[in-house]
Amino acid sequence: MKKVVNCFKTAALAAVLLASSAAYATTGVPVQGSANLKGKALMDKSDCNACHQMEVKVVGPSFKDIAKKYSADKTAVNKLSDKIIKGGAGSWGDIPMAPHPQVSKADASEMVKYILSLAPASGAKPAAKKS
């Protein structure tokens, strides 16, 4: 009986991993909870955290707010990769984003894919605000 239960657990885990992989392959954007370790590692080595944080606005918007705004945009990876490299202003207020010309297009794309993976799953309810 224990072997049967373990077999079902393994099959369920494999199904979840397969579904996550299929979603990533079709959209090019990782599903929430999937690891885009390269994008995260690139961001950890960069100066992103000087202006952005995971959940709160600092100088620029939070990574989660960026993910919410752009997760449904099919052109987001290209658009935001260019924004990382070239900089820009006006999307989130008056403070411009500094350009990062040293970042390659491929690396910027990996960073953006990681950020977009932070968007809440569709149909997810927002967390209740603390009073």
From TrEMBL:
**4Fe-4S recorded as keyword:** no
InterPro entries (UniProt xref):
Cyt_c-like_dom, Cyt_c-like_dom_sf, Cyt_c_ID
Q: What is this protein called?
A: C-type cytochrome
Matches recorded under Gene3D superfamilies: Cytochrome c-like domain (1.10.760.10)
| Signal peptide (UniProt feature, chain positions) | 1-25
The protein's organism comes out as Adhaeribacter swui
Q: Which keywords describe this protein according to UniProt?
A: Electron transport, Heme, Iron, Metal-binding, Signal, Transport
Q: Which parts of the sequence belong to the Cytochrome c domain? A: 34-119
| Entry binding sites for heme c | C48, H52, M97
Q: How is it modified after translation?
A: Binds 1 heme c group covalently per subunit.
Q: Which GO terms describe its molecular function?
A: electron transfer activity; heme binding; iron ion binding
Q: SUPFAM superfamilies given for it? A: Cytochrome c
Q: What is the lineage of its organism?
A: Bacteria, Pseudomonadati, Bacteroidota, Cytophagia, Cytophagales
Q: Does the keyword Signal apply?
A: yes
